Amino acid sequence: MSKSLIQFIIEEQRHIPNASGDFTGLLSDIISACKQIAHDVNKGALIGVLGSAGSENIQGETQKKLDIITNEVFIKANEWSGHLAAMASEEMDDIYEIPKQYPRGKYLITFDPLDGSSNIDVNISVGTIFSILRCPEGVTNPTAADFMQPGTKQVCAGYALYGPNTMMVITTGHGVNGFTLDRDVGDFFLTHPDMQIPVDTQEFAINMSNRRYWEEPVQRYIEECVKGKDGGREKNFNMRWVASMVAEIHRILTRGGIFLYPFDNKEAGKAGKLRLMYEANPMSFIVEQAGGVCSTGRERIMELQPTGLHQRVPVIMGSKNEVERVVGYHKGA
Ligand code: AHM
Ligand code: MG
């Protein structure tokens, strides 16, 4: 039988001097949350969780019932055990302080409890994304400012994908490993060791309906992909758009590809759609660890100094040679 996710993490932590077991405990709570979310997503209409909640989040997006339920599940699974000092979620305006009755720990977590939730009512894959940071030394009552750490400071990042199989894919900075949930046993087992993104690809993912809002370098790149061999490229391209970043990045980790949610001028003051702390940074950590490249077009995503919990950034990530080509176009190559 292959390794369980917890066995894998414990063995990985043995190589870290003075590891206290806190991190393993935290991962175990995250796994419990993802198993519960997998259950709720899987039952869907049977337990009455589909549809809109009739509220909006801080970003003005309509919340689904499951956005709220899964946010609550994630918090309840993680607040009690003393591993976290605070949490921040895409679905909450401010940081979540650990309630006074529980001990506070040395980690911070940011998460998107149900990414791609516009897909939930149509029974298409969704996911949970998380990123773990260290709480700054000596801080016992963290504020949002303590979360403003660049992606290079992440201790761990991962996602759960609720698709035909439920999977968890994680990195702690030593490669990327994928685990599949065996529902009969109730545990995740290593099924996709050392995931690697091929450097070349013939598959791109972008929401083409935003085309008129993109900047020139992205217009040029996508135009070339669409024209393929008839437009100056050496190969033809295929396109995919699930509208679930987790599913999209999982496909890229599995068979390569380039994913773009680039800068657009659709709405003043927004630099694209995806959020640095909940989506761009954790996915960048995973993609880079699998040999991919992640950029805004102008900077490496993980080197950005965050300025706000819900900050949006342009995202271009995936197979190295294609991402580097788009970055080159931004430099005027
Ligand atoms: P969400 O966190 O509100 O679900 O939004 C993020 C999702 C990503 O998973 C996906 O890549 C993107 O939004 C899809 O956007 P669009 O609706 O433009 O296709
Ligand atoms: Mg999201």
Automatic annotation (TrEMBL):
- Positions that bind Mg(2+) 2: 112, 115, 279
Taking every annotated instance into account, which residue ranges of this chain make up the domain Fructose-1-6-bisphosphatase class 1 C-terminal? 197-330
Limits of the Fructose-1-6-bisphosphatase class I N-terminal domain: 5-193
Q: Provide the cofactor list for this protein.
A: Mg(2+)
Q: Which Pfam families match?
A: FBPase (PF00316), FBPase_C (PF18913)
Reactions this protein catalyses? beta-D-fructose 1,6-bisphosphate + H2O = beta-D-fructose 6-phosphate + phosphate
Q: Which GO terms describe its molecular function?
A: fructose 1,6-bisphosphate 1-phosphatase activity; magnesium ion binding
Q: Which UniProt keywords apply?
A: Carbohydrate metabolism, Cytoplasm, Hydrolase, Magnesium, Metal-binding
Q: How is the cofactor bound?
A: Binds 2 magnesium ions per subunit.
Q: Which positions does UniProt annotate for substrate binding? A: 115-118, 207, 273
Which EC number(s) are documented for this chain?
3.1.3.11
Chain sites annotated for binding Mg(2+) 1:
90, 112, 114
Task: Please name the top-level EC class of this enzyme.
Answer: hydrolase
Q: Which GO terms describe its cellular component?
A: cytosol
The record's family statement is: Belongs to the FBPase class 1 family.
Instruction: List the protein's name.
Output: Fructose-1,6-bisphosphatase class 1
The species this protein was found in: Gallionella capsiferriformans (strain ES-2) (Gallionella ferruginea capsiferriformans (strain ES-2))
Q: Coding gene?
A: fbp
